[in-house]
Design a protein that fits this description.
The chain is mostly helical. It has 21 helices and two strands. The radius of gyration is 24 Å and the shape is globular. About 4% of the residues have low confidence.
Length: 468
């Protein structure tokens, strides 16, 4: 009996997959989704980037005026973006104040906030300052490029280490179409994927034997965001394991440190010449007490630092395993160590976008065949969607002011219901806390998938019970 003809949709998909490179198809789908949600880019962070660009245009540099809390790398990128906007896009005024938004305490100055508004601002800060849509568009396009680069580097890692192109394509899709990655670049307008690309490049370069450039990349990554600092012992251990017994270990270690030092010197040189290098690291102390002076948040920041200190022995433990087991297992242990260091780092509840540091390494093992990680990927992605739902009304501020879609009056009415209605900010916190809980369960699912089985079997072995 002849088989029934395939459904037209399936025939179309099969034709696309056979006629178009699958990576191109995934990129097109991912860019369409990003452009669709890009109007939701939050005014809070985009306003900070606009302030930094204004400071640069006024000749104040990155640290001449208050407002820039990061090391210089992202500031330099914003400076380059500003030059492109001025020359090619004719961007003039970068933003404006939405006077209507000042009616709600959550959008107003912190001095006028009551207790609920201050708590809301601590978890989901909002501002009445809005940024021009062209500025937001050009910022997002730059970040989209790094999303593609991060997905492609995962594709290469999976392809090289498994030899399976289909798994590699799956890895590309799981990164580039991941709602968390999309949220970070398209809605948050944050540069975490920039740091991820540099981190992944350092690993790729190490695997190719280019330790100097690998050192340069990890230095650039750490000077973009400090999180990759905790995997540096793993990278050093990888170099030792790879070249042990060849007589070239010392040479490659020195090359790696030379790359680290030269990049750090180049990045910090303007501040060194001005005698103001400590401004680059001011965020380590200033931001601990910058969130509306809420003592709970200050305590949380201190606890976070203590939790991060616990990552040192974890990183050293994986480093020891890499050196001990040698070159044959170094690649897998390096990636597994990176995954677990970043997962444990996020077990102290962190902003959703920070979890993007987990995602490339999670996806690598998931695409390579570790299906136990599927639950983690799904829950972390679902949590990202819920975070957008929690902040959707405030995220429409830029569109309401510059495009009138929706009207500013309609947007403020919806925001009042979500953040300042008869029940205070209960609707917001209900969704926000649910999103955080879902993502946290995703992290725990990753821990269970990677360590749970081994721990159970170890307990069984010590108790004399047969292993399963």
């Amino acid at each position: 009996m002849p088989e029934p003809p395939a459904h037209p949709f399936r025939r179309t998909v099969d034709w696309l997959l056979s006629s178009v490179h699958p990576l191109l198809l995934i990129v097109v789908i991912g860019l369409v989704v990003r452009l669709a949600v890009m109007p939701l880019i939050g005014a809070y962070d985009s306003n900070y980037w606009a302030v930094i660009v204004r400071n640069l245009q006024a000749g104040e540099g990155l640290y001449g005026l208050e407002g820039y809390y990061y090391t210089p790398v992202w500031g330099y990128m914003l400076g380059a973006l500003s030059a492109v906007q001025t020359m090619l896009l004719g961007v003039g005024e970068l933003g404006t104040l939405a006077l209507e938004a000042l009616q709600l305490p959550a959008f107003s100055d912190s001095a006028s906030m009551d207790g609920m508004a201050r708590l809301l601002a601590a978890f989901f800060p909002m501002t009445a300052m809005t940024t021009d849509l062209v500025f937001n568009f050009s910022l997002s396009i730059m970040l989209f490029a790094f999303d593609i680069a991060a997905a492609y580097l995962v594709y290469r890692l999976v392809s090289e280490m498994t030899g399976d192109r289909r798994k590699a394509v799956a890895g590309f899709a799981l990164v580039f179409l991941c709602p968390l990655i999309i949220l970070t670049s398209s809605v948050d307008g944050m540069f975490d994927t920039v740091c991820i690309v540099m981190t992944l490049l350092s690993i790729m370069l190490l695997r190719r034997g280019n330790t100097f450039l690998a050192g340069a990349m990890i230095s650039l990554a750490v000077l973009t965001k400090f999180f990759p600092l905790f995997i540096c012992p793993l990278l050093l251990a990888y170099v030792i394991a790879r070249y042990r017994g060849t007589g070239e270990t010392a040479k490659h270690v020195l090359l790696a440190f030379a790359g680290i030092a030269l990049v750090a010197l180049a990045v910090l040189m303007p501040q060194i010449l001005e005698g103001d290098v400590m401004s680059c690291f001011r965020f380590l102390t200033d931001r601990v007490s910058s969130v509306n002076k809420i003592s709970l948040m200050q305590v949380g920041s201190i606890v976070r630092i203590l939790v991060y200190a616990l990552l040192v022995p974890l990183s050293l433990a994986f480093s020891y395993l890499i050196v001990r087991r040698g070159r044959e297992e170094a690649d897998g242990l390096l990636l597994k160590g990176c995954l677990m260091v970043f997962v444990v780092m996020m077990l102290f509840p962190a902003p959703a976008r920070y979890l993007v540091f987990v995602m490339p390494f999670l996806v690598f093992f998931l695409a390579a065949g570790d299906r136990g990680l599927r639950v983690g990927w799904i829950l972390i992605s679902l949590g990202a969607v819920l975070f957008v739902v929690a902040g959707c009304t405030a995220l429409l501020t830029n569109m309401a002011v510059f495009a009138g879609m929706p009207s500013i009056e309609a947007m403020m009415a919806a925001a009042a219901m979500m953040y300042d209605g008869d029940h205070g900010a209960v609707p917001f916190f209900a969704v926000y806390v649910s999103a955080a809980a879902v993502q946290y369960l995703g992290l725990l699912a990753v821990v269970r998938a990677e360590w749970g089985g081994a721990l159970v079997e170890r307990v069984r072995a010590r108790s004399g019970r047969p292993a399963r």
